[in-house]
Sequence to fold (254 residues):
Amino acid sequence: MSRPMVELRGIHKSFGPLEVLRGIDLTVLAGQVVVILGPSGSGKSTLLRSINHLEKVNRGYVRIDGELVGYRQVGGRLRELKEREVLRQRTHIGFVFQNFNLFPHLTVLENVVEAPVSAQGRPRREVTEQAVRLLDRVGLAEKSRSYPRQLSGGQQQRVAIARALALEPKVVLFDEPTSALDPELVGEVLDVMRDLARGGTTMIVVTHEVGFAREAADTVVFMDDGRIVEQGPPGQVLDDPQHERTRAFLAKVL
Ligand code: ADP
Ligand code: MG
Fold:
């Protein structure tokens, strides 16, 4: 039995009067892949951003590999960590965005090398060797000297994945990683993600790619209106959904 890598407990988040997360409980075991499905506005991005403390939750807590994110416990109270410590925690949480967010003025290789050197203080030579291996793994060995603008969207997203992996994260969060891509480029990114899933990377993936969920997920979570409506193995949630809202959503995306 593998250990819990991500634990979300009783997460509530509001923006002013708008309650976006209404009590989220989720456990992701080491090496597991969780795919989150749900309509636009249901709180999926806010949930991912809460995991690495980009959003401060109003109630509840997040643990990564047993460690509270954003807080430490002092007596019975939670005290917020200093920014520097939050940044350190964040380096253990990979984040892949819809729009890649590569540094435009850095080459592909420099994009991958940057954070492990500057944020983790690792030796540049060691990180560079690892970056070369990672770029090979995502099929971009020959693009290491190119700049992001010279790459297709699918290639840029694969660089973003290599960059996330270079931090040797405990978990990688993906927020609709293929939504901004031309349809013919979606497959190459999903292939890389399938490879990670098989290789034992702990992943939480927000996506509308139901085929990916079916093949790669250990658990599929359906979110609506700030709550987890149902969760279970893909065969159960996708083929035999128990809730009307899940059925209605699947009917639209399938
Ligand atoms: P999803 O990713 O499922 O589409 P989001 O988490 O992006 O949903 O958004 C959930 C709800 O929270 C939406 O109604 C959105 O408008 C609102 N929201 C998200 N971020 C903010 C913010 N920073 N300020 C105010 N409202 C926000
Ligand atoms: Mg979103």
Q: What stands out?
A: The pocket of magnesium ion (ligand 2) is lined by residues 44-45, 175 (CB under 6 Å).
